[in-house]
Amino acid sequence: MNKRLLLIGATTGYQTRAFADAAGRLSYELVLATDRCHVLDDPWGDRAIALRFEDPLGAAQALATEALDKHSRVDGIVAVGDRPAYIAALAAERIGIPFNSPDSVAASRNKFLARERFRAAGLLVPNFQRLSFGGAAGAGSPEAEGPDRAAEKAHYPCVLKPLGLSASRGVIRADNPREFIAAFRRIESLLADPDIARLHEDQDRFLQVESFIEGREFALEGMLTNGQLHVLALFDKPDPLDGPFFEETIYVTPSREPKATQDAIVRTTNAAVKALGLTHGPIHAEMRVNQRGVWMLEVAARPIGGLCARVLPGLEELILRHAAGERHAAGDFVMPTAAAGAMMIPIPREGIYVDVAGLDRARSEPGIEDVIISAKQGQKLIPLPEGASYLGFIFARAKTPDEVERALRNSHRKLRFEIATALPVI
């Protein structure tokens, strides 16, 4: 009997299409649930369930109704993105299929709650505190301190970050009170953006201030089965991420770190997963390593985002099979051993995307699998910390991680982007 799965993701997300293709290869029936307008009649022709992501409880109930009231069998659920993961957790609880608990997913996508649980579990955590915007906290509460007072008391360097945004969006380092106040106001303005404000996230009434963690940054892709962590890949992030913004660029696997460091990363990730209470499905964890040890930044209850999953061929099929309840041998969780990597092409400045030169030369660089420009002509480009996208992606595969990193950098150097100045709105 063919498996029937629910997939929750953004309407236009890269991964939504990748999972749909993977389901076709597996002969699974995949029911899409996306954040499209519920008034339009199937505008993409994919018969997806229209959800309101700003109403997680309502969205979960709609999925449960689809699964139970209509007597449609559902074998599993997959989520692409942080908010979809929370909706999936609520829906899975109602339907009675395996997934992470809503509490664990809520903690994983809230930087303050995650830090509290990591600290309670004895993990290394920086000094941190939560500050409110516009009286969100009660009078007299330490969280209600205005930015001026908080800036006076802060220990520098420190990092200010929204509690719920991902991919380093809104994360800003401050080295003095003046930079602290500027970062506070900048994040406050970002969270007031209509696309964010419409989601009515309680956590967006706050930001977090924490001590800057020195060290090298890594990412771990894993799969959880009954709380047991299976490591799929460990990525080096060779570019220093020291601020003032923290735009990720290059991921390379396998890691070039000594075995002792890699083992410490896996142990810490395992402890962080247990501290959050996550038990089932894919995870994407990020951490920093310095002389004191491994500092967990976050563990997301979802796979690696965007097109970057192409670095791990077969990842979507593995996630779908796992969600469908298929039994796995230990070897199923081993990703290809050849060195591979991806570069998320950063946006150098704000403006309007016009064109790119050197694309053929970039693609012909030895070791390069593909160069994909995801920006569209006429699109307004917004760099970090406000932005939430990249110009595109470069993918490489070679014999060694060093060769992969070199290929990515050489390919990127051959690209020349034309970005026009955006005229101010009067």
Question: Would you kindly provide a written description of the structure presented here, covering whatever features stand out?
Answer:
The protein is α+β, with helices and mostly antiparallel strands. The chain folds into four domains: 4-100, 3-Layer(aba) Sandwich (Rossmann fold); 101-122 and 214-300, ATP-grasp fold, B domain (D-amino Acid Aminotransferase, Chain A, domain 1, 2-Layer Sandwich); 127-211, Dna Ligase, domain 1; 338-426, ATP-grasp fold, B domain (D-amino Acid Aminotransferase, Chain A, domain 1, 2-Layer Sandwich). 30% of the residues lie in helices and 26% in strands. The protein contains twelve helices and 19 strands. The strands form five sheets. Strands 3-2-1-4 form a four-stranded parallel β-sheet, with helices on both faces. Strands 5-8-6-7 form a four-stranded antiparallel β-sheet, with helices on both faces. β1 (4-8), α1 (14-26) and β2 form a beta-alpha-beta unit. The longest helix is centred in the middle third of the chain and has 18 residues, at 259-276. The protein is globular.
Q: Structural class of the helices, strands and pairings?
A: alpha+beta
> Regions with pLDDT < 50 over 5+ consecutive residues?
37-45
Strand percent estimate: 25-35%
Shape: globular
Task: Give a brief description.
The chain is built from twelve helices and 19 strands.
